[in-house]
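User: Hey, my collaborator sent me this sequence without any context and asked if I could get a structure. I don't really work with proteins. Can you help?
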Amino acid sequence: MSAELIAYNPNDGYEMDSQSPDLSAIASLELMSLSKSGTRATFSVELKPKSLSGRLMIQTMRLGKSRLDKRYRIKASDFARIIERQHKSNVKA
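Assistant: No problem. I've predicted the 3D structure and written it out in structure-token form, which is a compact way to encode the shape of the chain:
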């Protein structure tokens, strides 16, 4: 798989285009400042199949969507806590 950063703004987020023989994907992270100490992060991925095996992969993901969503929420929450801790330690230093 190859990936290319197609848009980047430190205050607003980024967008990345990924290509493989079976799938094409565009992933974006949008950041919205809620207050001086809070930011909302929204991550989205758009997958498009390029082949029959890509279609089967996407269909399998659709069938397991609730399980994938749950795993993603847990990992994203853990990642956000790590970033928050790192930021707080850098602000105090």
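In plain terms: The mean pLDDT is 90. You can pass these tokens on to your collaborator as they are.
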